[in-house]
Design brief:
The complex is a heterodimer. By secondary structure, chain A is mainly alpha-helical. Chain A is 70% helix and 4% strand. Chain A has a single domain (9-175), classed as Fumarate Reductase Cytochrome B subunit (Up-down Bundle), CATH 1.20.950. Chain A has five helices and two strands, in the order αααββαα. In chain A, a hairpin with a 3-residue loop joins strand 1 and strand 2. Chain A starts with 8 loop residues before the first helix and ends in a 6-residue tail after the last helix. By secondary structure, chain B is an alpha+beta fold. Chain B has a single domain, classed as Catalase core domain (Catalase HpII,  Chain A, domain 1). Chain B contains nine helices and ten strands. In chain B, strands 1, 2, 3, 4, 5, 6, 7, 8, 9 and 10 form a ten-stranded antiparallel β-sheet that branches. In chain B, strand 6 (207-210) and strand 7 form a beta hairpin. Classes of the chains: A mainly alpha, B alpha+beta. Chains A and B meet through helix 1, helix 2 and helix 4 of A and helix 1, helix 2 and helix 7 of B. Bound molecules: protoporphyrin IX containing FE (3 copies). One protoporphyrin IX containing FE (HEM) binds at residues 46, 61-64, 67, 99, 101, 118, 120, 134-136, 141, 146, 149, 203-205, 273, 306-307, 323, 326-327, 330-331, 334-335, 338 of chain B. One protoporphyrin IX containing FE is lined by residues 46, 61-64, 67, 99, 101, 118, 120, 134-136, 141, 146, 149, 203-205, 273, 306-307, 323, 326-327, 330-331, 334-335, 338 of chain B. Chain A: InterPro entries: Cyt_b561_bac/Ni-Hgenase, Cytochrome_b561_oxidase, Di-haem_cyt_TM. Chain A: This is Cytochrome b.
Chain lengths: 181, 364
C-alpha cells in the first residue's frame, strides 16, 4: 500500500467545499439557461455571487497548493496515468478560475450591471462594452462549463477507480487524515 | 507492494460503483439542462415560438425588432421617494437612453395604427443604480404566464397559405383560455393614439417599490404624454410613417411624458399582468421624461444593450408576476443571439434620423 500521506486539512476542506459549490453551479447554470420559469431570476441572482466565491476560493486554493505540495501518487502508477492525473488537475484549476472570470467578463461586455449581493454591492466591469465580445464570451462560458463538467465526471470516475478497484490510498488521501499503517 | 497490477481484478459490483456515480451525475445534468424533458418551456423554445408567430431576422431583436434609439433625461419629482429608495426617483436629473419600437420580430414590417408600440428606457444615475424598463401601449397584457405567451404566439402565427393567422387556431386558443377573454378584448378595443409621441406606455407587469425602511409597495406605472393625444390615422402609402413622424417631432422640439406610478389597491391582482387594476387607485406623478435626440439603431446607443425589466435599482424589486422572470431570460437570450449575428441595415437608417440642416442650432 501507498504510504498513508494525505492532503493537508485545509486542502481537503477546500477540495470538498469547492466540489459541492462547483457541481452546484454547473447544475444551477444549465438549469437556469434552459428555463423561463419563476426560478430564473432567483437562480441567476445566486449564480453570480456563488461563481465569484468560487473564483476567490480557487485563487486561495492555488496559493495553498503551490505552498503545500500534495502527497505523491502511488509509485507503481504507470507514467501515463500520472501524467493524466497531473494534466487534469491543472486543467481543473484553470477552469475553476477561468469560468467565473468569463462570466464576469461577458456581463461586463454586455453592459449589464453586475449586482453581487442584493443591489448593495456591484462588481465593476472588467471589460469594455462590446456586444460581439459578449456573444463570444457567452458561448465560451457554455463550452468551458461543459468541458469542466466532463472533466469532473472523469475525475470522479478516476477517484472511484482508485478507491474501489486499485484500492491504492489515493481516494482516502482526499477523504481522511493520513495515519501510518 | 510495488508489484500491484495497474488494473487489479475486482468484482463486477465494484466496477458498477465506478461507473454508476458519473453516469448518474451525467443523467441529472441532462435533466437539469432540459434535454430529457422536451415538453419543458425553455428560453430557446420561447424564442422559437416568437419566430413562428412574428418572424425573425438575424442581428435584430427577436421581438420589437423595428425601432429607433432616443436620448434625453428623466427628472424626478421626489413624490415617489417615500415608497422607493431608488436614487432615480429622487429630485434630480438623470440621463436616459431609450428606444421606440413596434412589437413583432420583423424589423422591416410596415407601420400601421393598430400595431403595438413600445418605449424602452435605461435611466442612468451617476451612482450606477440604473433602472431599465420596456413598456407597451396596451392597457393589459394578453396573457398571464410564459406558457400562455408561447401558445398565443403559435396560435397567432401566420398561415403560410394566406399570410394571416388561422382563425380556427385563434378560436381554439380563446376557447382554451376563457380567463384571458377580457384582456384580449381590452387590447383589441383600446383607443389608438396618432403616433409614438402622444402615446401612453404601461409597465403591465407589477413591481415592488422598497422604501428606505424596507416597506414594500406593489406598483405599476405608465409614461403619460404631456402633449394632447390625437386620433390615429393610417398612412397606407408610407411604410415608416410612425418613425418618420417621431423623428420630425423630436427634431422640432423635446417630447415629454409624466411617469405616473399606480399604487396597488386591496383588490388588485399583483401577479397577473392580464388583469387591470381598480380605476380609483392612488396615482403618483414621479417625474418627467424628456427626449431630445433620436438616432438610427445602426451605431445608436440602444442597440448593444437589452432593456431587461429586471435590471432594477436598489429600492425596486420584482413582484411575483411570472412573466418577469421569463422576460429577463428571453431578453438575455435574444441579446446574446443577435449580438453574434451580422445585422442588415435597419429600416430606420442614419440618413433618416440625421438632423435636417438649419435646425441644428435650436436643438442643442
Ligand atoms: C465556477 C463558476 C461558474 C460555473 C461552473 C458556471 C456555470 C454555468 C453554466 C453551466 C451555465 C449554463 C450555460 C449554458 O447552458 O448555456 C452558465 C450560465 C451563465 N453564467 Fe455561469 N458559471 C460560473 C460563474 C459565473 C459567474 C461568476 C457569472 C457572473 C458574474 C456567471 C454568469 C452566468 C450567466 C449570466 C449565465 C447565462 C444565463 C442565461 O443564459 O440565462 N457565471 N454558467
Ligand atoms: C465529485 C466528487 C469528487 C471526488 C470523489 C474527488 C476526489 C479527489 C481525489 C481522490 C483527489 C486526490 C487525487 C490525488 O491524490 O492526486 C482529488 C484531487 C483533486 N480534485 Fe477532486 N474530487 C471530486 C470533485 C472535484 C471537483 C468538482 C473539483 C473541481 C472542479 C475537483 C478538483 C480537484 C483537484 C484540482 C485536485 C488536485 C488536488 C489539488 O491540487 O487540490 N475535485 N479529488
Ligand atoms: C413572456 C412574455 C414576453 C416575452 C417572451 C418577451 C420577449 C421579448 C424579446 C425576446 C424581446 C427582444 C429583447 C432584446 O433582444 O433586447 C422583447 C422586447 C421588448 N419587449 Fe417583450 N416579451 C414579453 C413580455 C413583454 C411585456 C409584458 C412587455 C411590456 C410591458 C414587453 C415589452 C417589450 C419591449 C418594450 C421590448 C423592446 C425593448 C427594446 O426596444 O429594446 N414584453 N420582448
Amino acid at each position: 500500500m501507498r504510504s498513508a500521506v494525505s492532503f493537508s486539512l485545509p486542502s481537503r476542506i477546500l477540495h470538498w467545499l469547492m466540489a459541492v459549490m462547483i457541481l452546484g453551479m454547473l447544475f444551477i447554470g444549465v438549469f437556469m439557461a434552459a428555463t423561463v420559469g419563476p426560478g430564473y431570476h432567483r437562480l441567476v441572482t445566486l449564480h453570480r455571487p456563488l461563481g465569484i466565491a468560487i473564483l476567490v476560493l480557487a485563487i486561495l486554493r492555488l496559493g495553498n497548493r503551490l505552498r503545500t505540495p500534495p502527497p505523491p501518487l502511488p509509485a507503481d502508477l504507470p507514467p501515463l496515468m500520472k501524467a493524466g492525473a497531473k494534466a487534469s488537475h491543472i486543467l481543473l484549476y484553470v477552469l475553476m478560475i477561468a469560468l467565473p472570470l468569463v462570466g464576469w467578463g461577458m456581463l461586463s461586455a454586455a453592459d449589464y450591471p453586475i449586482p453581487l449581493w442584493g443591489e448593495a454591492m456591484r462588481l465593476p466591469p472588467i471589460l469594455p462594452h462590446d456586444p460581439a465580445l459578449w456573444a463570444w464570451l457567452r458561448s465560451a462560458h457554455t463550452v468551458l462549463a461543459f468541458l469542466l463538467f466532463g472533466l469532473v465526471l472523469a475525475h470522479l470516475g478516476a477517484a472511484l477507480f482508485h478507491g474501489l478497484i486499485r484500492r491504492d490510498g489515493v481516494l482516502s488521501s482526499m477523504v481522511r487524515r493520513g495515519s501510518p499503517d | 507492494m510495488a508489484t500491484n497490477p495497474v488494473v487489479p481484478p475486482a468484482s463486477a459490483l465494484r466496477w458498477l460503483g465506478v461507473v454508476a456515480a458519473p453516469a448518474a451525475l451525467a443523467l441529472a445534468f441532462l435533466w437539469a439542462g432540459g434535454w430529457l424533458t422536451p415538453g419543458r418551456l425553455t428560453q430557446v423554445g420561447i424564442l422559437d415560438a416568437l419566430r413562428e408567430g412574428g418572424g425573425m431576422q438575424p442581428g435584430f431583436r427577436r421581438n420589437h425588432a423595428k425601432g429607433v434609439c432616443v436620448g434625453g433625461w428623466f427628472e424626478g419629482t421626489g413624490n415617489a421617494a417615500g415608497l422607493s429608495a431608488a436614487t432615480v426617483l429622487q429630485q434630480r436629473r438623470v440621463p436616459v437612453v431609450g428606444r421606440f419600437a413596434l412589437a413583432g420580430g420583423l424589423p422591416f414590417q410596415a407601420d400601421a395604427p393598430a400595431k403595438v408600440r413600445s418605449m424602452a428606457l435605461r435611466l442612468m444615475p451617476p451612482d450606477g443604480r440604473e433602472w431599465r424598463m420596456g413598456i407597451n401601449d396596451i392597457p393589459v397584457f394578453p396573457v398571464r404566464t410564459p406558457q400562455e405567451f408561447h401558445d398565443l404566439q403559435l396560435a397567432s402565427r401566420p398561415d403560410p397559405a394566406t399570410g394571416k393567422p388561422d382563425p380556427a387556431r385563434m378560436r381554439a386558443f380563446r376557447a382554451g383560455h376563457p380567463w384571458l377573454q377580457p384582456a384580449m378584448e381590452q387590447v383589441a378595443r383600446r383607443p389608438l393614439a396618432s403616433g409614438f409621441a402622444d402615446d401612453t406606455y404601461r409597465s403591465l407587469d407589477s413591481f415592488l417599490f422598497v422604501a428606505a425602511n424596507g416597506m414594500k409597495t406593489a406598483v405599476r406605472w405608465a409614461m403619460v404624454p404631456v402633449r394632447p393625444v390625437m386620433p390615429a390615422d393610417g398612412h397606407a402609402d408610407d411604410h415608416d410613417y410612425l418613425f418618420r413622424q417621431v423623428i420630425d417631432d423630436i427634431h422640432a422640439h423635446p417630447l415629454q411624458w409624466h411617469l405616473m406610478v399606480t399604487v396597488a389597491g386591496a383588490g388588485d391582482a399583483i401577479d397577473d399582468p392580464s388583469r387591470t387594476w381598480a380605476r380609483d387607485d392612488r396615482q403618483i406623478d414621479a417625474g418627467t421624461l424628456t427626449l431630445t435626440t433620436i438616432e438610427s439603431e445602426e451605431g445608436g446607443p440602444c442597440t448593444g444593450i437589452t432593456f431587461d425589466p429586471l435590471v432594477l435599482p436598489a429600492g425596486m424589486a420584482p413582484s411575483g408576476d411570472p412573466i418577469l422572470s421569463a422576460r429577463s431570460a428571453a431578453y438575455m437570450r435574444s441579446f446574446f443571439l443577435r449580438s453574434g449575428e451580422r445585422a442588415a441595415a435597419p429600416a430606420v437608417t442614419p440618413g433618416m434620423t440625421a438632423t435636417p440642416a438649419g435646425t441644428k442650432d435650436n436643438k442643442s
